Amino acid sequence: MFDETPRPLRAALVAVQLPDVTDAAFAASVEELHRLGRTLGVDVVETFTQRRAALHPGTVLGSGKLASLKALTGGAEVAGAPSVEETDEGESDDDGDAEAADGAADAAGSPGPHVEVVLVDHEITPSQARNLEKATGAEVMDRTAVILEIFRRHARSRAAKAQVEIVRLGYLVPRLREQGKARGKDRQRGGIGGKGAGESSLELDRRKIRDRIAELTRELDGLAEEQRTQRARRREMSRAALVGYTNAGKSTLMRALTGSEVYVADKLFATLDTTVRPLVPEARPRVLLSDTVGFIDKLPHGLVASFKSTLDEALEAGLLVQVVDASDPNFERQLQVTTDVLAEIGAGDVPRLLVFNKIDRVGEGADEGNVARALRERWPDAVVMSARRPADVAALRERLVAFFARDLVEGEVHVPYDKQRLRGEIFAACEVLAERYDDHGVTFNVRAHPALLDRLRAA
Question: How is the beta sheet containing 352-357 ordered, strand by strand?
């Protein structure tokens, strides 16, 4: 991955529209990679798109678009066919149906700004990445690499950093062979304190990565046990989890509902760590709200799996608050992506409250009132709001409190004088209606979850 620099690196974006991808979905995906690039700190100065039946097996793009890309990056000479290695299948380039489908900037005949990075809106093979780098002389990052680098920069907790590192190392392993080809084959040799007998540099690098992944996995296992203990303490409480597409405004909503100083930025994947805070003003019983990592289309499966511990908050919540950016023209696709990922992690049956956020930022020419009315007509039970309006936030808070109040039952808990340590827990987790004192202790008349009542009575 490239280093962060004060000056944004200039990048070209490459995307191929395959036959099963609609024009709208393709345009949304390209725009999303633009935003990912901005989050990463690169300036996308040119975009190359192409229609093809499949990605070119050697260089992703066909020879015509590749020549234009090389002119922009200062790679190999533009004239003639691209100089790349043949693939294992021995397939040759065929631009017959590709060059007629543009809609992208074509750099041929115009030198333009020199490009240092090529972003590819696909998950490409190691050999495709190496061939592109060889042809263009620029660093090549596919969609997975871009997301991984953003995750690496934004991870703050030990758990998030370890999870990202495991996936990043797993991503690098199959690419070591191609890097070895670029450097030239390393001779096998043994030696004390170095490589094992007959172990090449490639094998040594792979062994080091396996050892590091094993070390990080052990660290995560220990952290996961701590997280399970913390979640067990909250199991009897009312818990809601904010879920949704990245940059939908979950962290802003979290800050507004809880008063917490969570990190807020107009960037993709600004939040990677779970934050749990009570609603403010506090409800009785207390309602806990957690912020979770945002979802994105074509999110690498390894990242979904690695952040399972973060998404467990969604699995164990009593209510999912699914936040949608109402100002985004592609919000319906984002809504579907979030729904699909929730089903993938097993949270599809958890009760859900749909919240259309950022209604105050609907596009030019759109009337906010009409947009809000249309959303409510299509999703009658949804909340349409702006996290920056106190009145909207207060109304959402009341919806959350009312949802959990449905499960409360009224009962009595007798606490002997020698167990007054339970008093604090009762006032935090229950709505105390009355107190009675006698010679043996205090009897609290409360409204609380049935499971909590049973445990307090047995304490």
Answer: 275-278, 287-291, 238-244, 319-325, 352-357, 383-384
Q: Which helix (H) or strand (E) holds 433?
A: strand 431-437
pLDDT digits (tens, 9 = 90+) for 301-331: 666 665 555 566 667 788 999 999 999 888 9
Q: The dihedral of CA 361, 295, 292, 356: what is its sign?
A: positive
Is 77's pLDDT higher than 50? no
Cα torsion 301, 306, 308, 310 to 10°: value is: -120
Rounded to an integer, what distance in angstroms lies between the CA atom of residue 261 and that of residue 49?
41
What average pLDDT score do residues 282-305 get? 77
186 burial (CB, 10 Å; 0-12 / 13-18 / 19+) is middle
Cα–Cα distance for residue pair 306/165, rounded to 1 Å = 10
Cα angle value 301/304/305 (rounded, 5°)? 90
pLDDT tens sequence across 243-256: 888 888 888 899 89
Flag whether pLDDT at 442 surpasses 60: yes
Q: Kindly list the structural domains of the chain, giving each domain's residue range(s) and its CATH number in brackets, ordered by start.
A: 9-150 (3.40.50.11060), 156-223 (no CATH), 237-405 (3.40.50.300), 409-458 (no CATH)
| Contact call for residues 283 and 257 (beta carbons, < 8 A) | no
DSSP, collapsed to helix, strand or coil, labels residue 63 as helix
**Residue 12: how many CB atoms within 10 A of its CB?**
27
Say if residues 274 and 310 touch (Cβ distance below 8 Å). Answer: yes
